[in-house]
Amino acid sequence: MNAYSPMMALPAERPFDDPGWVFEVKWDGIRAIAYVGETLSVRSRGDKELLGSFPELEELRQLASDAVLDGEIIVLRDGRPNFRAAAQRNQLTNPAEVEEARARSPATFVVFDILEKDGVSLIDSTLKTRLQELRKALRQGRYVVVSAPVEEHGVDYYEAAVKRGLEGVVAKRLSSTYQPGSRSSDWLKIKRVKSCDCVVFGYTPGEGARADTFGALLLGLYDEGRPVYVGRVGTGFTDPDLKDVRATLDGLKVGDPWFSDPDIPPGSTWVRPRLVAVVGYQEATRDLRLRGPRFMGFRDDKPPELCSLSQIRPLRLDEYYAKRDFAATPEPAGGHTPGAGNSFVVQEHHSRRAHWDLRLEKDGVLASWAVPKGVPLEPGERRLAVRTEDHPLEYGGFEGVIPRGQYGAGNVEIWDRGFYVPVRWLDDKVEVVLAGGRLKGRYELVRTDRDRGEWLLFKKP
Ligand code: MN
């Protein structure tokens, strides 16, 4: 039996309908891969053995043979999976305590994928095939259930899930393979409340009733191994939490500050990055700070160094995918081809209102603006340009007819293409020198209305 790291989902903004996808509940618990062979092992993402804390999963021995199964261990409270309850059970190792907790809050292993059967790896098979294999290979038990995803109708499914108080849904592409250990756009998580796993790097001094505990936890995430400050969380703690956390943090103190930032009050204490906090938030700002953060619990099944900044970085092509039905439009799904780094394209697009789409390659996607009156050719001319969703690089070669009823229905033709030299690229100002067939010279885009995504496009002398 091979060892596998779980495949991860990327965050997406909203649900969608697509016959090539299935949708299932986003279970809020502890991700686990079960190796059911001559021996049984259930491993966390951090490769911790979970059977000691969740002995009810011994049941797997009777329900499957010679199989590697991927799923989530959940604990229900009020009919809903409760992450905190699952995390509490995961911390127990003393058999008497485990037994007591198991009687009080039994766990369920929701299995949603199969990675190996009878010694044959299935990770290169499509999800569609794996789901069929899973149904054949695993019987349901008292503590083990097989997830039942629905096809195509993601929007209704998401709304029903949210009404039931569930965290959200996961969308999975039926034609996709299993990509161990990677966060792939073939799996998308669409959550009601966003949350991320943050590393605690310190705490701020408390005031008033919290003078002897702490004010807020200072949070960071890793970007290519380097810690980055993302904000602080001071709400969502219970009184016992506050005391426990302070005691734990005092055992981890270090002298040197991890971050220097105007948001961090003087007198803050720094600690070794060992604690992982689940933090709910409304959104991440453009400079990747958490807005409306709220503490939801600690988790010890995830190593701090796996808490990456990419959790809160929006996936740039989410909106592109969410707007299109690739069974119906000839537009490329894309998102796979590496680019030249500095290409641009202008596409003449005869949709309901004709316009020209200016797209500049940036960080692996095509940053895009719709220019209703076309890209100016004379110096001094300025045109309204409306920022539209990022497009995959493959879109730069697209020409064709988007069928009626689809997003952007109408004819698309390449009007110009070439390369550009960036002069500067800021959030609200982009200056480039274009070298295309028709467009040559210096152009500037300046944002005029953030909410409406309005910019002005100039040709400079
Ligand atoms: Mn367009």
Give the total of beta strands.
Answer: 30
Note the overall shape.
globular
Largest sheet, if any? 8 strands, antiparallel, barrel
CATH topology tier name of the largest domain: D-amino Acid Aminotransferase, Chain A, domain 1
Instruction: Supply the number of helical segments.
Output: 7
What does this structure look like?
The chain is mostly beta strands. The chain folds into 3 domains: 8-191, DNA ligase/mRNA capping enzyme (D-amino Acid Aminotransferase, Chain A, domain 1); 195-311, OB fold (Dihydrolipoamide Acetyltransferase, E2P), CATH 2.40.50; 337-459, no CATH class. Helices cover 13% and strands 42% of the residues. It contains 7 helices and 30 strands. The strands form 5 sheets. An 8-stranded antiparallel barrel has the order 22-23-24-25-30-29-28-27. Strands 3, 4, 5, 6, 7, 8 and 9 form a 7-stranded mixed sheet that branches. Strands 13, 14, 15, 16, 17, 18 and 21 form a 7-stranded antiparallel sheet that branches. β29 (440-449) and β30 form a beta hairpin. The protein is globular and about 80 Å long. The mean pLDDT is 92. The protein binds manganese (II) ion. Manganese (II) ion binds at residues 349, 351, 355, 357, 370, 408.
Key phrases:
461 residues; mainly beta; D-amino Acid Aminotransferase, Chain A, domain 1; OB fold (Dihydrolipoamide Acetyltransferase, E2P); 3 domains; 7-stranded mixed β-sheet; binds manganese (II) ion
